[in-house]
Design goal:
Length: 210
């Protein structure tokens, strides 16, 4: 299989035992999968673990894959479910790792304000339920439409829209004295313009392939 093959063709080939096809699937999707896991969980290593587990599950199930939907939609569902299951098992805590912000050459005062705002955003994300947090990540960081978010979260587009609308209400109780929606949306929309990282930390699944 070559780099021009569709994701669906690659995963079908994987199901027939073509591990080169699977390696191409990993190459195409490991960065965005890690990005979602990292923004949801707030931890580099946990994000890498989730991505590794997602690819392992996809590899294991490749022989049963049927191209009735886009592979990426299927993958969104896998990584979303793994992250949310992981969040349920964790003890509640606020992560210090924050989403990346662009270097705009700000002075010392502006840099401090930017860092404090980023920490508030991280705390706000950690204060949401797992479903709300994933909806924010998929919508405002990844730019997914309501329909695709709904498929990932096993709900309806209307329910997704209602959750995101609720999170835009400043009176939302998050234990933080800020208008969550206005601050969060301003920064995550800015992040959508950033280029992707060249490397994805820790996402190596080769040793798991027998």
């Amino acid at each position: 299989m070559d780099g021009c093959s569709s994701d669906e063709a690659l995963i079908l080939a994987t199901g027939r035992g073509d591990l080169q096809a699977f390696a191409e699937v990993v190459r195409r999707h490991e960065q965005w999968a890690w990005r979602i896991a990292h923004r949801f969980l707030g931890d580099d290593q946990e994000a890498a673990d989730m991505v590794q587990e997602a690819f392992l599950r996809i590899l294991t199930a490749a022989g049963r894959y049927r191209s009735t939907a886009k592979f990426k939609t299927y993958f969104y569902r896998v990584i979303t479910r793994l992250c949310m299951d992981r969040a349920k098992k964790k003890q509640p805590c606020f992560m210090e790792t924050i989403p990346e912000f662009p270097d705009i050459g700000a002075g010392a005062v502006e840099s401090i304000m930017q860092e404090e705002t980023a920490l508030l955003i991280r705390a706000a994300l950690d204060g949401l339920s797992s479903g709300q947090r994933m909806a924010v990540v998929l919508r405002y960081y990844e730019g997914l439409p309501y329909k695709e978010i709904a498929l990932s979260l096993d709900t309806t587009p209307k329910a997704v829209e209602r959750v995101l609308y609720t999170l835009n209400v400043p009176a939302l109780s998050l234990g933080l004295n800020l208008a969550f929606g206005s601050i969060l949306l301003a920064h995550v929309l800015e992040l959508n313009t950033l280029s992707e990282p060249d490397q994805t930390p820790g996402c190596r699944i080769g040793p798991l392939i027998s």
